Hints:
This protein is mainly α. The protein contains 21 helices and 3 strands. It starts with a helix and ends in a 5-residue tail after the last helix.
Amino acid sequence: xxxxxxxxxxxxxxxxxxxxxxxxxxxxxxxxxxxxxxxxxxxxxxxxxxxxxxxxxxxxxxxxxxxxxxxxxxxxxxxxxxxxxxxxxxxxxxxxxxxxxxxxxxxxxxxxxxxxxxxxxxxxxxxxxxxxxxxxxxxxxxxxxxxxxxxxxxxxxxxxxxxxxxxxxxxxxxxxxxxxxxxxxxxxxxxxxxxxxxxxxxxxxxxxxxxxxxxxxxxxxxxxxxxxxxxxxxxxxxxxxxxxxxxxxxxxxxxxxxxxxxxxxxxxxxxxxxxxxxxxxxxxxxxxxxxxxxxxxxxxxxxxxxxxxxxxxxxxxxxxxxxxxxxxxxxxxxxxxxxxxxxxxxxxxxxxxxxxxxxxxxxxxxxxxxxxxxxxxxxxxxxxxxxxxxxxxxxxxxxxxxxxxxxxxxxxxxxxxxxxxxxxxxxxxxxxxxxxxxxxxxxxxxxxxxxxxxxxxxxxxxxxxxxxxxxxxxxxxxxxxxxxxxxxxxxxxxxxxxxxxxxxxxxxx
Length: 509
Ligand code: CO
């Protein structure tokens, strides 16, 4: 790099580092709010976080930063650029963030912040009073604002909805998603019907009571086995499990424990552990740059779901974990056979609630939400018809109609806070995890004998090299193409699900 380019480079990266660190502080406050904060501190905390977020936003959109970054962006695009591949990727991603943030008029951002906060309160109140009419006007407002934001953000060839989707899953297009969801629905709906015609797995473990302190030790034991580094991370308790990657040296996982819900805790821990390994897997040298950040929500979810489902719901995993679990909970597992246990952790049953869904029906919940969003944004669906349309689709995909809107379209917080285009990333993550794991299996044919001994280091290592250390150097589409040799498709997930559940439920294909 010539010296003036070097000076711009240093300037941009230093500025970026400052507001990244302001964001780190916000993340710690957010983590603290969900785990340790005294209940009375809410109002002060909200103000503190608002100040930090405004400060970071001011820095991230300042003209001083924009001008220096603009010069680097020109350089990155020139044919004989002096920037290497990594540097070009950094500049491209910084420019993407900057131009997105600068596209939204300040007034609109302000109105969205205010409206979504009130809308979430209305959602919460409507749920308490079981009266959707208290929420519907707010849903109408959040949709209108999201449409307006999408119109500002969209680029050539994108719909407004695509532009919203792009925030969470850069490069994704609703036209491609439509195909993926159609394929999934076509495969999964008949499979669920077949499963429902088979006897339901039963076991005393489903009604057992599980000591919470032992559950916590068991969680740490599993995370250790996965290779989660407790010198650079923590595990705590929160109402809804989450992962906060403050820095690769400071990754905070949460889970939850209840005596009656052991499996919820177990799979939440492994799920968040998968997210945590991604956050711990970035290279230190790229700290505070986009090369030490996740590509997209979909790719993030691919890491958590791969560990949760492909690993921790597999038979080879339990070959190792079953005797270990018996050491932790001898009383609960007395007289329970391996097969009985394995069938119970893979029990499939369509239900109303997305977050309680098994790995077979989960994506049908997302297909439903994607279809609703698509119709709300581009298909002329009116807010007043949301409940009836939801029930119709739920019947079609899951074979059930929710008992009440609270267990239907009002169950998730997402729409109340204006998160449209977010749900599809859950399914993208599931599809990616199956396609990635397929490649891992073919590259390491001996993996089963290692899993059976509780050795997952080969998998972790492979994910570190292929996914984590890459940061945002590639788009999600390019990464999947590069690692698996093909674009993302529903086929690998469907094949994985079919072969596993045909065997479990003794279904002839
Ligand atoms: Co997740």
